[in-house]
Amino acid sequence: MSKAIAHLSAADPLLGGHIVRIGRIKRDPPQFSEPYPALLSAVAHQQLHARAAEAILDRLRTLSGGDLPAPAALLALPEEALRGCGFSASKMAALRDIAAKAADGTIPTRARALRLSDAALIERLTTIRGVGRWTVEMLLIFTLRRPDVLPVDDFGVREGFKRLHGLEAQPKPRELARIGEVWAPYRSTAALYLWRAADLAKLSAK
Prior knowledge:
By secondary structure, the protein is mostly helical. The protein contains 13 helices and no strands. Helix 3 packs antiparallel against helix 7, helix 4 runs antiparallel to helix 6 (79-85) and helix 9 (118-125) packs across helix 10.
């Protein structure tokens, strides 16, 4: 982290000042170490409050004896069971595709994922129903802890940059991608601090 902070501070003085004010961001261990359950959780959380999504996941865990079901077990669950957990029809289809893609190897284990580049993982995992680029980028940052991912489509990242640099409007994704090139190879750390900048702006507006 110290190398990342030194690099980001030199590359972007405004970001560096923000980092000094915030201090080191403490990161909790990832909730899931493997891509498969992380993707199940990501789909469950789509367009839902975190508490509601966790309640749905807890019901799914109960069905499988305490843990999220393995791919074969999830595929064997009837639709009625998944519907009873609270999943919509579209999410049920996405969960089944995640399970199928885990079973056929499209979704790699963590050990196999470590041998694949960020771009290769994005290309593979965005073939899954209900899984877009942003979802894979969150997996890369928070589950696999990849150091150089900048989710330029993320509202909070763009809002944080806007607030930090005193802009009237958020930068467009392509523009932020160009700007963020100077943050490489620590763009994930930059994203963490931009999210924090957006959060602080939201708190100050209350």
